[in-house]
Write a structure and sequence with these properties.
Radius of gyration: 17 Å
Helix content: 40-55%
Number of strands: 2
Largest sheet: 2 strands, parallel
Strand content: 5-15%
Shape: globular
Strand order of the largest sheet: 1-2
Distance between the termini: 13 Å
Order of helices and strands: HEHEHH
Number of helices: 4
Structural class: mainly alpha
Oligomer: single chain
Length: about 110
Amino acid sequence: MKVLTHLESEELTRHLVRGVVLAGGTGALKNYPSLSETLFHVPCQVGLPDTVEFPHRAIYTPEFTAIAGILRHGFAYRDAVRRGGLDARTPVHGGLRGLLELIRRYFF
């Protein structure tokens, strides 16, 4: 409910036209996708980490979706640096302090 309240307060619900993907443990909760569809009034589906290859099938569950996305992004970033598309010596905007502020603002 907190997510929906935030999206409405920022007038972002109009951007949910393609639906919502539930990642993490919430995707494994019984009836949570249908509850989410009722709340958001858009299609909801459970996200699975199917874009990164892992050695064990047990990792292909909703709980590992976020880390799979982070790994996928990391590999893409590394490849872009190796091809010369990015300069790895430049600092990431905001750094750790910016990340912590983002987490605090959106989740607490």
